[in-house]
Hints:
B: Hypothetical protein af1432; six-stranded antiparallel sheet; five-stranded mixed sheet; 11% strand
Amino acid sequence: MPGVRSVYTTGQVARICKVSQQTIIRCFDTGKLRGFRVPGSRFRRIPIESLRKFMIENRIPLEQLENGKKRVLVVDDDAAIVEMLSDLLRRDGRFDVRTASNGFDAGIETRDFRPDIMLLDYKLPDINGDALCRRLRNDPQHAYIKIIIISGVVDPDEVSGLLAAGADEFIKKPFDIEQVITKMSELLGLAA
Amino acid sequence: MSQSAVAISSSEGSLSPAARVELILSQVSQLPTLPAVAVQVLAATQSADSSAADVVRLIQADSALTAKILKLLTRADLGVRDEVVSIDRAVVLLGFDAVRNAVLSLQVYETFASVEPGEGSVLIREEFWKHSLAVACAAEMAARAASKVRVDPGEAFVCGLLHDVGKIALDACLPKSYGRVIAQCEMKRVSICDAERAVLGLDHTQAGKRLLDQWSLPRSVVECAWLHHHDELPESVQGRDVVQVVHWADNVVRRQRIGFSGCREIEPIEPGALRLGIAAAELARLLEQLPRRMETLSELFGLGAFRAEGVYTRAIADANAELGRLNAELTETNRRLTARSRAYEAIRAFVTASGERDGVGDVCAAGAEAVGRLFDAREVVTAALGPGPLLHAGFWSAGQTRRAGRCFDPSVLGPDPGWLRPETGEVLAPAPHALQRVWRIVRECDPPPDCCVLYVRHAGRVIGAAMFEPGLTPPSQRAGREEGESLSSALGMALASAAARADAERLSEDLLDLNRRLKSAQHELLRTRSLSMIAEMAAGAAHELNTPLAVISGRAQILARETEDENLRRDLQTIIQQARRASDMVTELSHFAKPDAPRKARTLLKALFERQYLHWQERLRERGVECAFEVHDEAAGVYADAEQTLAVLDALIANALEAAPSAQPRVQVNSAPGATDETVRISVTDNGSGMTPDVVQKAFDPFYSNRQAGRGRGLGLSRAQRLAEINGGRLWLESDPQHGTTATLELPARED
């Protein structure tokens, strides 16, 4: 199952935009589609950002680029939970899943992967979930990202603090997996 | 005369003292009157127009009298060597006054000497007159020898001779009573005047004055009879000098033991001699000449031969005096022994009666009784300060043999009453004003007029006081200072040790209380510390445990969703449930340690019970439990968090259901008014087998379960208790091993 890439070849872009490769090469060579050549060769490469920009400028529907799947970033320092959640979401089939085990990785993935939704553990080794929430909410570029905090904390004060920091939902561990899918679907506007 | 005496004796009891004295004096006045010569002589000296010659003629008409006068006036020792041959000559040589005095001496003496002693009289007349004559001689000689006073020797003589005539008068009127006077005087060594006053109500000086006044004898003679017991008189007294001379002469004669006038008191004569200006040599000469002069005059006065320094008389007198002294000593010893035995009895009874556990009030009461017994008092009030600021008082009354102790705030006596600051160092004293106030407070009446106080001393300090009215015991048998001091120190010791005991008791009570408070503080600290530790731990554990539980549960859910194998799915469901249960346990523990803040509100129990019933009805039906919810009219609602109250009731009902027996299980939920209007009680009662006290005690411990190990988690009741507490209420269990258990939740009825 092909995921969302960060760099595309002219052939891939031609398939996504449903035009000939020659048209794409001409656009690349005239500067309408920005990209770079692989050093030491003549192969053209197009980063996803310029592809997205190109598609928007030329009114090409973006669905083709996103292959219809919602991008999910699972952030938890516990490998087993990350694995379990990824497994669950991939089995569902409607989600592109990436993972991060700390706040720093989560930041990089947010920029590169541009997730639609984030399943965020509250306590991370380097930053707390509520701080991450606040950073994302204060950044207009990422304000669209839905955030579900999944945590073992039980203190109601802490839970309300997390919601105040900008989280859309709180799910307590251990959880009913159906409940996780349901909440995600609701936030993403998917049919349950 | 003896008939009159009888008459007086028989009416002694019914007369007032003043009337009695008047009656006696009137009897005295009925004594024989003076012979005519004496009356004439007195008249001559009092009126200017009557000439001395008339008196001399009168005297000379009585040849016996003339002889006696001439003999009286012949003083070879004074250089009147020639015998005075006639009254005329005597008047020329010695002056009319000398003659007059001689007449008076002889005539008055004869008058009295003629008075027969009454029946039962013990006053030996001969001895009495010997004494009087000796005083007359001594006074006459002293008047001559004295350089500091000017007294006519003749006058001194007649004054000395008649100074004690009051005694003769009283003895003549009341011979039996006067006998008692002399006996008392002998036995108890009191002065004769005191004895006379005690027995008769008046003394011989009063009687003598009355009689001599009536006879119109010269002022100096009357005053000597009246005042001769006083050695220091104010200057204003007319016959002061002659009274002093007679007083001193009386002492000289008593010391020389010449005759007997009813008493044997002896005063030193030297100071008197000094006062009168009689030099030591003169005094020695006087003492030497006195017997010789007595020898001369005894016969003249019909007293028989006077043997100077008669060995026999002297020996008898000495023996008499010694006997008197011994007697007096014995009497005194007897008095002291009686008083001491009373004191000993009182102290012994006091020590026997006071127990080791007696408080200060009890000791006060026992002390009151001891003081009452010692001093023969009718009522006694004792008081002691402390321990602490209170005044402890005891009271005892003889009539009711009643003892009572009480205490009160000493501030009712006013600021700093100073009631324990005796005015003198005496242990026995009249009760001061401040102490009388104590009496008034304790007895609610005025203290007796002659209220005494016995101060209670300990370690040199006054620590209490006993007030009382001395009883009817004769003064001679009354306890005195010494006995008072003994009892005072016994009381002081008992009071001090009672106070010390009370102090020690209070200290140990304080210590116990402190211990109790320390223990409960420790317990509370332990509880809060373990609670906050649990809270902290539970919060950390929640995160740490819930993550692996989420993995387990999640994986099992994924597997269960995808498997076709029913058995496997069932197993997976078990895993999922157990994981959730484990997680709930952690959550519950966390909530137990740090419960949600209650949202208190007025909550109606009817609605609460309905919800409760709906919640439980299925399980109740399943187990066939008969369950009744009843709301009392006056306990319809509570002020508490509804959800938390429900949680408490849940725990209590769950607990009751567990305890209920399988046969006819019954659970009763009732509301009722609490101990005060401010509270409402909700009780949950089962008809199970009840709990042992041990189980009741542990029922609220977290994780304690009476069920078998490994079953149930036992946070229910302790969490319920915690919720009850944060809602301002409390929760407790009462269990009867036969009749089941009642759990009671008490909550505030309304907002504070």
